[in-house]
Amino acid sequence: MIDITSKLPHVGTTIFTTIGQLAREHNAINLSQGFPNFDPDPELLALVSEAYKKGHNQYAPMQGALSLREAISEKIERLYGRYYHPESEIIVTAGATQAIFTTIAAFVRPKDEVIVIEPAFDCYEPAIALFGGKSVPVSLEGNDFKMNWSTFKSAITPKTKMVIINTPHNPTGTIWSERDMLQLQDILRDTNIILLSDEVYEHIVFDGKPHESAAKYPDLAARSFICASFGKTFHATGWKVGYCVAPKPLMHEFQKVHQFNVFSVHHPLQIALAEYLKDPQHYVNLGGFYQQKRDAFLDAIKESRFKMVPSEGTYFQLLEYSDITDEKDTVFAERLIKEYKLASIPVSVFCKSEYDKKFLRFCFAKTNDVLEKAAEILNSI
Predict the structure, then answer these.
(1) Secondary structure tally for the chain: helices H, strands E
(2) pLDDT of 78-114, one tens digit each?
(3) How many angstroms separate the Cα of 66 from the Cα of each of 91, 99, 244, 249, 287?
(4) Can you give the residue range of the structural domain that contains 317?
């Protein structure tokens, strides 16, 4: 046997794989992993088919198809008022996760510190550890998951290389306000800290509120990698196509890693997405589409024993269960699958620090019949 010393000794199988397998074993309704159970727009699928037939079946340019990078640049400038040059400040990636990983790989060195806002999506910390960095968790406070900016500021040290934020936020469904972004900008000003802004749910924001992209704030934009996902936006998570934007000097370093890690991304999908993005209605109406699902789901469980604050963004809804049981969330989530045939994600798995606020995360990016069946189960508990 080869003697192996693991670079990630404390990392096991992701919670999404574990819960998904358990849901299949018990034939449970799966509201755990964040993917829709319905198809993308037939118009988009037709464009993909057309791209195959037109011969876009060899390597795309390493940075991505120029037509798609131009469409991304136009979209960002239209929405957030900032121009990113298609040839030097935008790269198409194999999903947002690859964009996040590549950013960390390009900049984090051994003993560097990276501030991670918790609860945090599970791909951040393993990537930091892989490159010898140290995650410094800063927890959102209260059951409304707000940032204590004094606590955040005190976490910054001379070793802080990067800060990772996520808005709209997975798993809590909260969004950062203009005030939050201005506070962050003021704190990071005059530092050499890189900001990694995970904005994969940028178009899924509810109740008329805006998405506060880092691109809207000059000092943040100057230090930011902004990561986004076409898979999340267009109901096609299996396509694994996203993008990353950053100022030219930062993107130059990102590209050095990207070209040897992935090189290029699925070419026909890029050609189709470039054409599809020409109509902004394909993404500006997304919030309203998912808000209807959120509202229907919450209305269907309003008589349940769960407590809820409506999600502000993403397609996730947290439900607080302290009136039902004092079990740890991981235990209750497993029991829900085995006894009630309903799968969710316990929020504690998104935290490095000790966490047990009795929250489960449910994905409402599902057809109405599935949400109705899930609501019946929740109401019966």
Answers:
(1) 15, 12
(2) 999 999 999 999 999 999 999 999 999 999 999 999 9
(3) 10, 18, 14, 19, 28
(4) 15-39+284-380
